[in-house]
Amino acid sequence: ASRGSVKSINTNQFFSIAGTVSTVNAEYANTRRTEYIDACTWSVDDAGIPLNEIAQSPTRAGMNTQKPFTVSSLVIPANILPPGHAMTFTLTCKVFSSGGGDDDGELVILDSAASINIVTNAPPTPGMFEVYNPNAFPSNQGIALQTKWKFEAYNWENVDDPILYQFGYLTLSGLQLILRSQSEEQVAILL
Question: Is 63 helix (H, G, I), strand (E, B) or coil?
C-alpha cells in the first residue's frame, strides 16, 4: 500500500482522482491455473461522506486483465465535500481466483491499495466589507453613475493565502455586474 501526500482542494470546484493500476501479467495467471477476476474500489475514511451517492463516477470497477494498465477515476462534484475537512481517499484493487475461497467461492490472491490525503479549503474568516463615498459626509450619499464609491474589504484571513477580492453588485433584475475582477488588492474606487 502507498500513501500520497496531502493535497488541498477548493470545495466549490469538482475534483478528480485517477489511479493507474498495473494488472496481473499472463505468465503469473497461467502458473496459478485459475480464472482471475479483478476489481478496484474507491473508499473514503469518513463515514459521513456517502461516496457511492455523491461520486459522478463508479466507485467500483472491474479491471481488464488483458491490458497492462487500467485507469480508475473518481470524480466528486463541486460543493459536496465539507469545507475545512481532512479525509483520505483510497483505491483498493483485488485479484480473485474462482473456486476454493470464501462463501462466494472466491479466494483473494493479490490485493493492493493506494491513498491520497485531501484537505478541503475552508472559507476565509469573516472580516469587514464597506462601500462608501470617500468625498462626502455622510459617506452613504452620492449620485448614481457620477459618484466614485470606495469598496473596501479588510481583516479577512485564510490559511491558504492569498485571498482574492472581486467587487461588483447585483442589478434589480438579478444580473451580477463585476466592477473589478479578482485581485489581491483589498480596496477599489469605482464609479
Answer: coil
